[in-house]
């Protein structure tokens, strides 16, 4: 054959290719074996595996060093003659195939310590007559096979077809079709064509062996054709699948690729805008947003990082949401304050009944602002009062008077500093803290910002949210508030912060220091009725789609709702109950039923069910060992009976009714006071050693604490010990010292109102609290007798229904544990002393 190119079919493993001029030289010296007169010759042989060596084909085979096969190869090389390659029958390995290949041995190169690579050039097929292993020499007796070059028309047609198809095949496999077609042009022997193509196809060893074994070239051509067709078909199918997958992939990658390309081009042109719509949107937002230097630098840096990050990666998403946060926060947008005091006063009055102190303080604030507009420091107001006393709604009105935005956030239950200050960005799902989240909602840097329930902050191992809040509120620090997520400082100094709390007692002291307290004292019944009439009813009518012509709520009805359906210092439940009545009326209206013109007190149960609260009332009779305290609760004030019983015993003091530590100490102080007065009250010596004293504050499920029941405890105790009853229409509040001095307490307004509601006639108040009576409506003050007290003696004077003298002590018996009597148990059988 005279191909002038070296052609490498990768289809057969280890094949070096069909003989080309480049490789010929090393084989030129090797002669084919000459057959003897019988047409056969003897030659060394080697068993071959996996690789079929077709005639004219050069194949490299790997042989083991020192193996018989290698020895035979070397022997052949010595003789400058050929070796015979023999194949095992794949269906039965102990047999060999009676057709072998006579091959010339070329270069031998070591590949590792144990193997060498031998180049073999296929010369011609031989039929194997005999294998022999005599004298340790493996030799074969073989006859060169005769291959007819005769071509029928059919063979010719098949050859043409094969030549055409193999070109397609080669193209699909990515071989050079030009070289191939030139090589094919020179092949006109059907036998050689089938060998040539058979070697090229990527077909299983067995199929290749079948081709090798077939000595009739025309039959070989017929054998080859279906193999070629099926290979071609598979390749086409593969190509089609690949192109389908490719185009799907392409569509995905193309965009990313093109975008990257465009980014590069834009960079070259000095245009640094991104082509990703999301990034572009952020860039445009960045252009429109005026930012202080630090956030601006941060945004620039992150935008660069974003552009260098693959679009679909989680990292990209995180950067985008960070950028969006920075860009959507207000940095410079500011509303213009309306500092017109008359306007503000009008707004506050229009929206709120009463609340004079709070309103005055707000107006003062506005006045200072209008006179000294440059003053940037904002006071921090803290509205303290029970729920529903109008703290939030006053906050809103302040914002609307100032024409500022209003936002609020609840701090109830916040115990993690990160809730205030955000999580660092390395956290999965990190976000800014509540302060900045709320600022984003405000859309301006100077909103009225209400921090609700500041008294419900908790500190735990996650850091102290109160100290983070200090940084929020402290004008010295809040111009550069640091949020962990945002990383750049944020200016909160233009915000008007208003905090709210139900009680000052649980506000962290450091915070309390920074704030200006404004109390929301709770409303008396008349005020509630007025609020309902002016604000709640009109609003609820509006919400239920009704008007005053449809239904009215007379004052008596409101009174009953307030007393029997609500129990609160504020008006939140009152508002709810009114709402639910009006919704029921609205339903009647929509059903076309007859409407009540006015809701009478008697018909309330049809709207609201049965009464839920029973008015607390003063005791009906004067009793020994039973005194009435007035307590402050989050819902306002309430009266609180204190009971004391004295039994014969061993000097123990027992307290029940969920009494807190401070109240227990008050009880101890009260007892010490009484002991110190024993002589004056003519209490027998050793009396206290022979009795047990039991103090109980009813409604045991409700925890009670605080020092303000001190004088009541002392009164009940004195009454029980002396056997003198307490006047039932007297209630009292005040702290007691060991020497019987009375100290001032808080919550006077609520307490006085509670006493009044309960039907108390006389209220004993510490002298120092008299000033607080200003907060009590004048009309009410006139109906109560208020007695200012400085010492326990004065308390006893007003409270006891008799002289404080020992008149009815129990019999102090050490061995009798029988329940005896002073105080509560009037069925005593104990002997009366004296
Ligand atoms: P808080 O924030 O103190 O819990 P809110 O401000 O939510 O109370 O008040 C509850 C409802 O009572 C609101 O509808 C509010 O308008 C109304 N309200 C409370 N006090 C007054 C008042 N003095 N004048 C008019 N409405 C009031």
Describe the secondary structure blueprint for this structure.
Elements: E1 15-18, H1 21-28, E2 41-48, E3 57-64, H2 68-79, E4 83-89, E5 92-96, E6 99-110, E7 115-132, E8 139-144, H3 153-173, H4 177-185, H5 190-200, H6 205-213, H7 217-268, H8 277-288, H9 293-307, H10 314-328, H11 341-351, H12 356-371, E9 381-385, H13 391-402, E10 406-410, H14 417-421, H15 434-442, E11 448-452, H16 465-473, E12 496-501, H17 509-514, E13 516-520, H18 525-544, H19 555-565, H20 572-590, H21 604-608, E14 623-624, E15 626-633, E16 636-648, E17 653-656, H22 661-676, E18 691-696, H23 710-722, E19 725-726, E20 730-732, E21 735-736, E22 742-743, H24 748-757, E23 762-766, H25 778-783, E24 785-789, H26 792-799
Parallel strand pairs: 2-4, 9-12, 9-13, 10-11, 11-12, 15-20, 17-18, 20-23, 23-24
Antiparallel strand pairs: 1-3, 2-8, 3-7, 4-5, 4-6, 6-7, 7-8, 14-19, 15-16, 16-18, 21-22
Helix pairs in contact: 3-4, 3-5, 3-7, 5-7, 6-7, 8-9, 8-10, 9-10, 11-12, 11-13, 18-19, 18-20, 22-23, 23-26
Bound molecules: adenosine-5'-diphosphate.
């Amino acid at each position: 054959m005279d191909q002038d190119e070296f052609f490498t079919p990768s289809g057969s493993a280890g094949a070096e290719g069909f003989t080309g001029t480049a490789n010929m030289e090393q084989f030129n010296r090797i002669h084919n074996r000459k057959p003897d007169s019988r047409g056969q010759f003897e030659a060394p042989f080697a068993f071959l595996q996996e690789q079929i060596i077709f005639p004219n084909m050069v194949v490299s085979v790997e042989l083991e060093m020192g193996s018989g096969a290698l020895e035979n190869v070397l022997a052949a090389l010595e003789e400058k003659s050929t070796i015979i390659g023999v194949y095992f029958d794949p269906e039965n390995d102990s047999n060999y195939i009676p057709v072998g290949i006579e091959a010339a041995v070329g270069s031998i190169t070591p590949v590792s310590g144990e193997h060498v690579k031998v180049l073999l050039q296929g010369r011609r097929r031989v039929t194997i007559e005999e294998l022999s292993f005599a004298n340790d020499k493996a030799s074969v007796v073989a006859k060169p096979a005769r291959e007819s070059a005769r071509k029928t028309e059919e063979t010719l047609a098949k050859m043409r077809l094969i030549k055409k198809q193999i070109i397609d095949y080669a193209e699909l496999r990515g071989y050079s079709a030009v070289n191939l077609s030139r090589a094919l042009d020179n092949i006109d022997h059907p036998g050689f064509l089938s060998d040539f193509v058979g070697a090229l196809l990527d077909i299983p060893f067995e199929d290749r062996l079948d081709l090798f074994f077939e000595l009739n070239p025309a039959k070989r051509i017929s054998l080859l054709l279906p193999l070629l067709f099926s290979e071609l078909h598979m390749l086409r199918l593969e190509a089609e699948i690949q192109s389908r997958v490719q185009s799907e992939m392409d569509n995905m990658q193309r965009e990313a690729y093109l975008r990257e390309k465009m980014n590069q081009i834009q960079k070259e042109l000095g245009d640094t805008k991104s082509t990703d719509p999301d990034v572009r949107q952020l860039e445009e937002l960045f252009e429109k947003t005026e930012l202080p230097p630090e956030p601006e630098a941060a945004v620039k840096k992150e935008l660069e990082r974003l552009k260098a990050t693959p679009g679909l990666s989680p990292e990209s998403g995180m950067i985008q949401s960070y950028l969006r946060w920075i860009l959507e926060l207000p940095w410079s947008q500011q509303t213009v304050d309306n500092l017109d005091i008359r306007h503000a006063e009008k707004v506050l009055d229009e929206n709120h009944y009463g609340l004079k102190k709070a309103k005055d303080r707000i107006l003062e604030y506005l006045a200072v602002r209008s006179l000294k507009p440059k003053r940037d420091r904002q006071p921090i107001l803290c509205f303290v009062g029970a729920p529903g006393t109008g703290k939030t709604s006053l906050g809103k009105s302040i914002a609307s008077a100032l024409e500022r935005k209003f936002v609020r956030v609840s701090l109830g239950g916040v115990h993690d500093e990160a809730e205030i200050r955000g999580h660092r960005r390395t956290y999965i799902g990190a976000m800014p803290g509540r302060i900045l989240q709320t600022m984003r909602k405000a859309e301006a840097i100077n909103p009225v910002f209400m921090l609700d329930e500041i008294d419900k902050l908790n500190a735990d191992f996650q850091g102290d949210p109160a100290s983070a809040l200090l940084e929020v509120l402290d004008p010295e620090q809040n111009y550069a508030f640091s949020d962990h997520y945002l990383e750049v400082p944020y200016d909160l100094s233009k915000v008007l912060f208003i905090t709210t709390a139900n009680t000052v007692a649980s506000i962290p002291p450091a915070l309390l220091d920074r704030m200006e307290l404004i109390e929301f004292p709770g409303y008396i019944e008349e005020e509630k009725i007025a609020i309902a009439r002016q604000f709640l009813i009109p609003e609820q009518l509006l919400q239920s789609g009704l008007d005053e012509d449809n239904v009215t709520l007379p004052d008596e009805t409101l009174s009953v709702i307030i007393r029997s359906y609500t129990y609160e210092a504020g008006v939140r439940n009152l508002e709810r109950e009114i709402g639910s009545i009006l919704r029921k009326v609205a339903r009647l209206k929509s059903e076309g039923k007859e409407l009540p013109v006015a809701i009478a007190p008697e018909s309330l149960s049809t709207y609201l069910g049965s009464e839920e609260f029973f008015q607390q009332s003063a005791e009906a009779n004067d009793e020994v060992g039973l005194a009435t305290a007035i307590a402050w609760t989050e819902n306002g004030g309430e009266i609180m009976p204190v009971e004391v019983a004295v039994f014969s015993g061993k000097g123990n003091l027992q307290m029940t009714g969920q009494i807190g530590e401070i109240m227990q100490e008050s009880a101890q102080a009260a007892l010490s006071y009484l002991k110190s007065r024993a002589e004056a009250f003519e209490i027998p010596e050793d009396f206290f050693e022979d009795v047990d004293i039991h103090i109980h504050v009813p409604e045991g499920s409700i925890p009670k604490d605080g020092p303000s029941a001190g004088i009541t405890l002392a009164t009940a105790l004195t009454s029980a010990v002396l056997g003198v009853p307490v006047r039932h229409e007297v209630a009292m509040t005040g702290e007691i010292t060991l020497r019987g001095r009375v100290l001032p307490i808080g919550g006077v307004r609520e307490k006085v109102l509670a006493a009044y509601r309960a039907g108390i006639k006389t209220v004993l108040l510490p002298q120092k609290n008299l000033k607080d009576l200003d907060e009590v409506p004048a009309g009410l003050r006139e109906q109560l007798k208020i007695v200012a007290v400085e010492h326990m003696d004065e308390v006893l004077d007003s409270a006891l229904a008799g002289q404080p003298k020992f008149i009815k002590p129990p019999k102090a018996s050490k061995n009798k544990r029988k329940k005896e009597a002073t105080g509560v148990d009037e069925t005593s059988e104990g002997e009366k002393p004296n």
